[in-house]
Amino acid sequence: MRECIIGIDAGTASVKGLLVDASGTIIATASAPIRLSTPRPGWAEQSPEDWWKATIQLLDTLTVDRNLEILAVSISGQMHSLVPLDAVDDVVRPAILWCDQRTQQECVELTEACGGEQEVIKTFGNPVLTGFTAPKLLWLRTNEPDNFARIARFCLPKDYLVLKLTGRLAIEPSDASGTSLYRVREGVWDDHILDVLAVRRSMLPDLVGVGSVIGAITCPDLPRLRGVPVVAGGADNAASAFGCGVEKPGDTVVSLGTSGTVVAVTATPNPDLTGRVHLFSHVTKDCYYHMAVILSAAGALDWFRQRFAQNLSYGRIEEMVGQSPVGSNGVLFLPYLNGERTPHRDPDARGVLYGMSSFNSQGDMLRAVHEGVVFALREGAESIADMGTPMTNVRVVGGGSRSHVWFQMLADNLGTPIWSPLVDEGAAYGSARLAANAAGIDTTGWVKLVERYEPDEEKGRLYAPWFTEYKELYQALRERFKISARLVERRS
Q1: Tens digit of pLDDT for each residue in 52-89?
Q2: How many CB atoms sit inside 10 A of residue 475's CB?
Q3: How far apart, in Å, do the first and last CA atoms of the chain sit?
Q4: What does residue 395 show for φ and ψ, rounded to 5 degrees?
Q5: Contact partners, residue 357, CB within 8 Å, separation at least 6
Q6: 90 is catalytic
Q7: Predicted pLDDT at 491
Q8: Residue range 372-396: mean pLDDT, rounded
Q9: How large a percentage of the chain has pLDDT more than 90?
Q10: pTM of the predicted protein model
Q11: Number of helical H runs and strand E runs in the chain
Q12: Could you give the CA distance from residue 373 to residue 407 in angstroms, rounded to a whole number?
């Protein structure tokens, strides 16, 4: 029989599963879409039962071959999202997701109750943000008191799926560190904020080590997997980084997905007191990571392509971008279509195309979009560098990484060689690595880097003044963004 492991990622758009053999080769993949509910503007919810049905379906599909021995299963998932459970572990109400924005007032209240933002960042490693878990609990207590009174326990998405598989509710540090309930540097829950929220310790999941065995599968719906160990996976960003070999200090991954991230591993859990950069626990021993987030990356190109580029093929876009010079003949793009996280923390910021003249071509506009996203990621990387976190071993993943022009732009702006990994399967592959490690398999050879891009020093010098212009354009417009946001609110 062929020895295999299964890695699962419970994402926002879908649940994805990978069947991987002991050498790291992917044998089979499966995914199931998940419906997103937006009952009000700014709200985002999902049914945990939909995650569970999808997981059952994936596990059944991936194990249909009876000539397999499944050594272990591990699950990663979307961070921050709140799953409230009653006394018999039934879901009290739909999960409130990481992208839900209803808790602005609760963030202010919790920040004040914990001594102000500086004290909050020192305690938890991050500000209290609308996406995080703690303000969702306070919102429920204030706005849905009957539901809040029914909550006996609560968890995050991947932990709910592990509960359904094993009967045990547990969480590991990489997900706990995105809740605003957990002291990242000390590795413990914070009693003060639990008191503020009127949350008992018994309501929290067991805190376990990432990569440890939580329990065996007991679910009767999966007879082929009964008794298989379930290994503690990680938060999606941490698991995704681990999946492409970002696991020790100096390792960095840039994600060019719909949104964009820069994740850099560090051994020193120093929080950014300005709140620009996140600090979370990693899935590797005694390691943490600093993370910068931009809200529109490849999504900005998709937006422009659909509305203003007649859905040109990506190959044609690549050609046109390559024909425009550094600086896009004077056109700058701020990619803040949905506000911005790092470094501005500005929900009112909006996208801007600036500097257009009758001379400019469609290729200039497309190049400006590419450059604007790269400049935003560069700002994130520089914010991390300001923390003293080294970025010496960089790789790039996500849909945008398939663009050779975009890849080279990143190398030129970051000023360091960057690599693409052979396997770019995100958090599900990282979960499979964690499961394999727990089963005694050495996964060092799983990660293979296949294409290297060297920075062009001359191009780097040419980008420098345009990057300065990019940063100064936001500063010049910052107050105008706030005025525009108020006008939009008044009109609506």
Answers
A1: 999 999 999 999 887 899 999 999 999 999 999 999 99
A2: 9
A3: 63
A4: -130, 160
A5: 330
A6: no
A7: 65
A8: 95
A9: 89
A10: 0.92
A11: 15, 23
A12: 12
